[in-house]
Amino acid sequence: MSSDSSQIVRTHRLEAFSDGVMAVIITIMAFGLKAPHGTNLAALRAQIPHLLVYVLSFVNIGIYWNNHHHLLRRTERISASVMWANLDLLFWLSLLPVMTEWVGTSYRHTEPAAAYATVALLAAIAYSLARSIIAANPQSPVSTLIGSDVKGLASIVVYVLAIGLAFVTPWASYALDVLVAVIWIVPDRRLAR
Amino acid sequence: MSSDSSQIVRTHRLEAFSDGVMAVIITIMAFGLKAPHGTNLAALRAQIPHLLVYVLSFVNIGIYWNNHHHLLRRTERISASVMWANLDLLFWLSLLPVMTEWVGTSYRHTEPAAAYATVALLAAIAYSLARSIIAANPQSPVSTLIGSDVKGLASIVVYVLAIGLAFVTPWASYALDVLVAVIWIVPDRRLAR
Amino acid sequence: MSSDSSQIVRTHRLEAFSDGVMAVIITIMAFGLKAPHGTNLAALRAQIPHLLVYVLSFVNIGIYWNNHHHLLRRTERISASVMWANLDLLFWLSLLPVMTEWVGTSYRHTEPAAAYATVALLAAIAYSLARSIIAANPQSPVSTLIGSDVKGLASIVVYVLAIGLAFVTPWASYALDVLVAVIWIVPDRRLAR
Amino acid sequence: MSSDSSQIVRTHRLEAFSDGVMAVIITIMAFGLKAPHGTNLAALRAQIPHLLVYVLSFVNIGIYWNNHHHLLRRTERISASVMWANLDLLFWLSLLPVMTEWVGTSYRHTEPAAAYATVALLAAIAYSLARSIIAANPQSPVSTLIGSDVKGLASIVVYVLAIGLAFVTPWASYALDVLVAVIWIVPDRRLAR
Fold first, then answer.
1. Is C178 in contact with C129 (CB distance < 8 Å)?
2. Which chains pack against D, by 3+ Cβ pairs within 8 A?
3. What is the domain count for chain A?
């Protein structure tokens, strides 16, 4: 990298790169399901927990992809700090396939449940961080953003609880993971027309 | 995601993301073929069924990619419901590599055949759903779309039959899977110039 | 797909999709190398043949990516036949990772060498086919293209020889595979300034 | 490829292709981590070295992606030599996932450490080469680039040392790999406003 004004990265390429990473994450994650061992319904049934975790992870990537889009279209040029905050988010999302596979095959145990919620927590923190950096940019039309990261903060709190509850029972932890996804999918009442 | 008017996603990014997912699906699916075990022609011949299912799945992705393109260029801005309908389609397509691998290695059995047709059915339903949501959008030039989803509905009916026939013989099920692909590839007579 | 004038696909999306497939092919192919079993230099040395085939396949994808680009920028709108010719090319390229892995692990044998050259041949035919379809399009500035597919035809002939020679010795087959790559990389004399 | 003026490739497609390759590299590399064998904390702890190498490789890809962006936006049209220099860079980066997996599972040994630094060195050389080719292009606003590749040259020197020190102790080699990443991430003082 040259020593010139290279701190500014065009948004569209950051978008394209992030979309690429998220597209690959989804497909790799699905491929991690693996073909059932055997050819009867029992073989298929044994895959159902893994399939359900995949659905949850898929929905999470879908939510991040959507949020990411809204975040980036607020600004045309982004600083190096936004770029690294974005890479931080992609880093944690890139661990989702491995976590999904671990939970999918060992879902009755505390450790995979706690690890999944930890990765989800760190992704949520990275997203809120990226959001606040963009909101702090004086060049962006961000006044509409300030004060509205309620969902982001709620996600962080719920994921912290999900980590703790994994040590009581993994099922409670998974329920909270699902709760965060529901919070994001359910459309805002205030926005309904 | 902020609580503002974030329900609208630009079409081009939805396209790019979907293209990414479909591009990865094709390649992952091919990689699932795996190098033949051994170095003689018998080793290659043992791979032919898997190769044939791969051809079918590849063609299906090609058809969806093409249809997807035509669907999205009807509108410049899309609602959250279109985005989730699109993610629903991508979800079922993302299961195609695993289904392809299962059929490729256990093609003589009912369960993989029925599972393949089920995933294909759910993808077809997702596509028709996305199509009808876009057609219902008053902002789109969609009057030309209404009443022309004959192929989509036919696909759904044939895939339902394919699931049922898998319990008689998987070969009949595969024949119907191929039939749907043929319905889509053969160009419309009315369109010939 | 609707029954309207949907035969026309915008070039840029075809490009993006093809780029996506080729980008994934390269990376999947590299990942197929696998980490050496063991930690000494002998373990690394055992990987060298696989690495060399990877280099050849990587260069081939690079050549196709480059040619593909030149082909598509000749036209802004492409017909369904170009789309399927393009998918045909991507299909054969998608088999390159598996072929690379097979040659990389069983390079002393006739079958992998013949199979690699066969896939390369079918990709070359697909490319020439796509090229001639585009050249036949009266809307394109293609007169400059006509009569200049010497390299494409030469590639096809050399790959046919490579298949045959694999039954004499795989090394001759690999030499011809390399020859085709050299034909494409060496810059045209006439173009030198 | 036709025998016409096909030496010129539009920058945006080179960017998109490179982004695709780098996006897949990151995700494949993360998937190489694999789900822990077992469900207790010891199983997770055994994955920590692999996770740390993944962080290093992820950061390296992030740095290259960022640098690559700055390099390419200097010019709108690029020659065949730039295209091949870029492919050379992507080639070495594509080996990063396999190297990461090797170091991740055999980090106490000289060979993986030396191999990792060698691949990193060859990627750094490829980048500096691409940079100097672009700088030599009279059409580009590159005078600002000339004389400022201090970081690129420093990286090359440090990686050479990292290869040598791997034969003393792999830990010194890894420390130098980290040093290069730090050199690139720490923002230029001169650029601070």
1. no
2. A, C
3. 1
**D101 contacts chain C (CB < 8 A):** yes
Distances (CA, A) of A79 to A90, A152, B188: 17, 22, 50
Mutating which of B39, B57, B128, B145 best tests the C interface, going by the most C Cβ atoms within 10 A? B39
Complex ipTM value: 0.86
| Contact status of B49 with chain C (Cβ, < 8 Å) | no
Is residue B157 in a domain? yes
For residue B35, list chain C residues with Cβ-Cβ distance below 8 A.
98-99, 101-102, 105-106, 112
Q: Which residues of D touch C20 (CB under 8 A)?
A: 20
* A4 within a domain of the structure (yes/no): no
Q: Does B3 fall in a domain?
A: no
pLDDT in tens, chain C (193 residues): 333 333 445 777 888 889 999 999 999 999 888 877 776 777 778 888 999 999 999 999 999 998 887 777 766 667 788 888 899 999 999 999 999 999 998 899 999 999 999 999 999 999 998 888 887 765 555 445 445 688 889 999 999 999 999 999 999 999 999 999 999 987 654 443 3
C-beta atoms surrounding C172 within 10 Å: 16
Which tokens in the block code for residue A138? Answer: 């004086």
Q: What is the pLDDT of residue D189?
A: 47
Which residue range(s) make up the domain with A47?
9-191
Strands (E), chain B: 9-10, 77-78
Interval D165-192: pLDDT, tens: 999 999 999 999 999 999 998 765 444 3
**Closest Cα to residue A3, out of D132, D149, D69, D128?**
D149
Give the Cα separation of A100 and A31 in Å (integer).
11
**Which of A39, A151, A188 has the CB atom closest to B111's CB atom?**
A39
Return the structure tokens found at C142.
Answer: 């293609």
pTM above 0.95, yes or no: no
Shortest CA distance to A92 belongs to which of A175, A162, A21?
A21
Flag whether D176 is in a domain. yes
Q: For testing the chain B interface, which of A66, A72, A128, A145 should be mutated: the one with the most B CBs within 10 Å?
A: A66
Express each pLDDT in B90-129 by its tens digit.
Answer: 999 999 999 999 999 889 999 999 999 999 999 999 999 8
- What is the nearest CA distance from B183 to chain C, expressed in angstroms? 11
**Contacts with D101 from chain C: Cβ below 8 Å:** 34-35
